[in-house]
């Protein structure tokens, strides 16, 4: 088990397609054909770019969680 | 009253429709959610769904400064150079990849998290203004409250020192100045440029400081922004963030005066305020449309939009689209209106959205807590002559002070 893994999710109903995540973390997010963001992988190794992406989302539609306990790492409150 | 056979967005400027922006939209809807407006010489898009779709379409571009500039005669070009240079470095008028690079510069100071840290300072500005106003019994909501509040927030964010804040007063939209080929604002832009350049030099020298420091930090982190790019986007912060927010606050007050039951509801349940701010934005945005240029031919909704066509996304009409919102012409602070279009949609979504939400929440929350029994002193408060900007030029009201519950409501507002 890799306890350092993170879980990525995008609330697609909230996403407004600003592309903030795809520009700050292009290896983790893409805009689909309808202009809504989706994570390219759900489980990923820790990377600060993901925290930046989640904290930069103007509608806070991205969530980064630690896998073992589900603690929300970003967006920061 | 006489009407042409053809309806146009420009009808908003006709005297018989003055101030009745939404009445004009209701008439235009008869022509369909998207149609060609021959007088405006642009497609107009009125439907919520259609605005969302087209905002996300990368075949429509927000870059329209250089095209306009290039077609000017040589003499006008040299007159307009300072404005053209400032505008063309603003992220708003750029497309990827440069748009992403410029946006990256401003991003750190406009995230929801950063703006939450600014909340006590913004609340402090609103409280200080009302400490001066609350006993007077009368105020012009625009000149006495909304305008100084949004000016001081922007000054705080852009690092404009107190002795230079007058440079932010009576700001004239730079895009309008540019398209009307006016040089009236050149002096002010030069003065602000000097203020910003001094600010950048101080921070480069290591003076510890305010929020402008964040921009320097971004630069240190390897992003190679030029002084011109930084200054252009500080000007954008003023241009896009100051008057728009002032008049969102003004329009929200006017909306609450037309719906006093909703004002009472917010006084009783201040925890509704964060959601109510979205409804204020939906109900009466200070910016009514945004324009794009088609970069390629495209088919949409049974229409053929040709390369080079102008497409006007009428955000204020989408916000009242009866196919999307029930009873769209009523202000309902309990409505889930978070999907309003007033910040735009897609990659040009307003970077200052989070800031504006906090400003409006602080402004309205504090005003509701400290005053009551609002009455219009002018039954028909004057609107700016514009088809795009729903700006009240004055909103004089009388009111009674309500000191009793002030502290309680402000606490809730701050935590909300």
UniProtKB/TrEMBL annotation, chain A:
Its cofactor is [3Fe-4S] cluster. Keywords: 3Fe-4S, Electron transport, Iron, Iron-sulfur, Metal-binding, Transport. GO terms for molecular function: 3 iron, 4 sulfur cluster binding; electron transfer activity; iron ion binding. The keyword Transport applies. InterPro entries: 3Fe4S_ferredoxin, 4Fe4S_Fe-S-bd, Fe-S_cluster_ET. Residues 6-34 form the 4Fe-4S ferredoxin-type domain. It comes from the Bacteria. Ferredoxins are iron-sulfur proteins that transfer electrons in a wide variety of metabolic reactions. This is Ferredoxin. It comes from Mangrovihabitans endophyticus. The lineage of its organism: Bacteria, Bacillati, Actinomycetota, Actinomycetes, Micromonosporales.
Automatic annotation (TrEMBL), chain B:
Pfam families: p450 (PF00067). GO terms for biological process: antibiotic biosynthetic process. GO terms for molecular function: heme binding; iron ion binding; monooxygenase activity; oxidoreductase activity, acting on paired donors, with incorporation or reduction of molecular oxygen. InterPro entries: Cyt_P450, Cyt_P450_B, Cyt_P450_CS, Cyt_P450_sf. Keywords: Heme, Iron, Metal-binding, Monooxygenase, Oxidoreductase. Gene3D superfamilies: Cytochrome P450. Belongs to the cytochrome P450 family. This is Cytochrome P450.
């Amino acid at each position: 088990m890799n306890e350092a893994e993170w879980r990525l999710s995008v609330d697609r109903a909230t996403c407004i397609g600003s592309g903030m995540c795809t520009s700050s973390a292009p290896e983790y997010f893409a805009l689909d054909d309808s202009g809504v963001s989706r994570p390219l992988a759900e489980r990923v190794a820790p990377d600060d770019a993901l925290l930046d992406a989640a904290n930069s989302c103007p509608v806070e539609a991205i969530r980064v969680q630690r896998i073992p306990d589900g603690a929300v790492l970003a967006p920061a409150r | 009253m006489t009407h042409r056979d053809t309806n146009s967005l420009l009808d908003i400027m006709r005297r018989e429709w003055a101030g009745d922006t939404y009445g004009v939209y209701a008439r235009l809807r008869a022509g369909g959610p998207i149609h060609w407006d021959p007088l405006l010489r642009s497609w107009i898009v009125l439907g919520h769904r259609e605005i969302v779709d087209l905002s996300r379409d990368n075949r429509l571009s927000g870059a329209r400064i250089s095209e306009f500039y290039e077609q000017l005669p040589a003499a006008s070009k040299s007159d307009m150079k300072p404005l053209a240079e400032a505008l063309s470095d603003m992220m708003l008028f750029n497309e990827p990849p440069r748009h992403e690079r410029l946006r990256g510069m401003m991003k750190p100071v406009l995230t929801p998290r950063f703006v939450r840290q600014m909340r006590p300072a913004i609340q402090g500005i609103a409280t200080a203004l009302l400490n001066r106003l609350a006993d007077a019994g009368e105020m012009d909501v625009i000149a006495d409250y909304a305008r100084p509040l949004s000016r001081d927030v922007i000054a705080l964010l852009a690092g404009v020192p107190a002795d230079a804040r007058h440079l932010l007063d009576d700001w004239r939209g730079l895009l309008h100045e540019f398209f009307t080929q006016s040089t009236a604002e050149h002096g002010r832009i030069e003065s602000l440029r000097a203020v910003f350049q001094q600010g950048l030099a101080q921070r480069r020298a290591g003076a510890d400081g305010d929020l402008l420091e964040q921009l320097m930090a971004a630069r240190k982190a390897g992003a190679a922004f030029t002084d011109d790019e930084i200054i252009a986007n500080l000007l954008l912060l003023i241009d896009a963030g100051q008057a728009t927010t002032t008049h969102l606050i003004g329009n929200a007050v006017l909306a609450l005066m037309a719906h006093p039951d909703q004002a009472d509801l917010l006084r009783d349940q201040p925890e509704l305020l964060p959601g109510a701010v979205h409804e204020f934005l939906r109900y009466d945005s200070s910016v009514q449309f945004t324009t794009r240029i088609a970069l390629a031919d495209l088919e949409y909704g049974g229409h053929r939009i040709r390369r080079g066509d102008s497409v006007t996304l009428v955000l204020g009409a989408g916000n009242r689209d009866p196919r999307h919102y029930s009873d769209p012409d009523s202000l309902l602070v309990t409505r889930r209106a978070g999907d309003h279009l007033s910040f735009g949609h897609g990659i040009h979504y307003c970077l200052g959205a989070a800031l504006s939400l906090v400003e409006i929440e602080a402004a309205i929350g504090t005003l509701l807590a400290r005053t009551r029994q609002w009455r219009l002193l002018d039954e028909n408060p004057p609107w700016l002559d514009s088809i795009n900007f729903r700006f009240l030029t004055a909103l004089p009201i009388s009111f009674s002070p309500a000191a009793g519950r002030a502290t309680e409501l402000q606490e809730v507002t701050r935590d909300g």
